[in-house]
């Protein structure tokens, strides 16, 4: 079997108060990733700002920008120069008073391939995203880049197997999840924290296995206000084996080699796609199945 290996990189970094500085920090890390052989680079969720959703305030709306816009233009130039694909999560202003949590995808020739708008929007203590973001309305998307067909989902989407399945069914080889997840500084014991992190990892590894795809989650690092982002970005292969995992909390560029030719092997040995009883799934569109 001929290898179709593509090296990917996940950028796990801390952010400061100035968006321009965060953008240039990400640019430097994309350069380092490309120097290390990465062909697809994924940045963490909302990488140009601090995670402002810890509270409901009006000032952060000033950070929002159109997509395409200034940040994507900067990254398009970089992608063209380095011949890398870039996945970039940004705070999108769509119209006055209408905002999304959005990932832009830029191909290796610098062309803007399109965007995915986060579908599942949380509203929990420290994660008040419903105040800022309208749920996505573009559906689940796959982007045919120079190096691979990639799907992009964002953070809270990680917990929904339906999102992973529908993206895989559109032909994704790799599911990328730009992420911002961590603990409240005062939250729980070490055991509770470890269980939370393991649940986060396990559900995504399950998506890899169930769909026969690679899964790559790029998380934030560092402490911002009351939140400690736990890092631990990782890549899983379609058999649920961790190809690579980043450090806890620390900044890191995580590299992983993904042999896309193995997807057919995995799916032929565990033929979940073949055996799906799609005729029995109609009730998935219901909120709850009441008697």
Please, could you describe this protein's structure?
With 291 residues, the chain is α+β, with helices and mostly antiparallel strands. The protein is 25% helix and 29% strand. The chain is built from 6 helices and 17 strands. Strands 5-4-3-2-1-17 form a 6-stranded mixed β-sheet. Helix 1 (19-35) packs parallel to helix 2 and helix 3 (161-169) packs parallel to helix 4 (190-211). The longest helix has 22 residues, at 190-211. The mean pLDDT is 96.
Defining traits:
291 residues; alpha+beta; 6-stranded mixed beta sheet
What is the topology?
Blueprint: E1 5-12, H1 19-35, E2 40-43, H2 70-82, E3 85-95, E4 98-106, E5 112-117, E6 123-124, E7 127-128, E8 142-144, E9 149-152, H3 161-169, E10 174-178, E11 182-184, H4 190-211, E12 214-218, E13 221-224, E14 227-230, E15 234-236, E16 242-245, E17 252-259, H5 262-269, H6 272-275
Parallel strand pairs: 1-2, 2-3, 9-10, 10-12
Antiparallel strand pairs: 1-17, 3-4, 4-5, 6-7, 8-9, 11-14, 12-15, 13-14, 15-16
Describe, in short, the structure shown.
The chain is α+β, with helices and mostly antiparallel strands.
What's the N-to-C terminus distance? Answer: 51 Å
Largest β-sheet summary: 6 strands, mixed
Question: What pattern of helices and strands is seen along the backbone?
Answer: EHEHEEEEEEEHEEHEEEEEEHH
Roughly how many Å is the radius of gyration? Answer: 18 Å
Q: What does the average pLDDT come to?
A: 96
**Protein structure class:** alpha+beta
> Which percent band covers the strand fraction?
25-35%
Helix content: 25-40%
Helix run count: 6
| Low-pLDDT residue intervals, each spanning 5 or more residues | none
Shape: globular
Number of strands: 17
Largest sheet strand order:
5-4-3-2-1-17
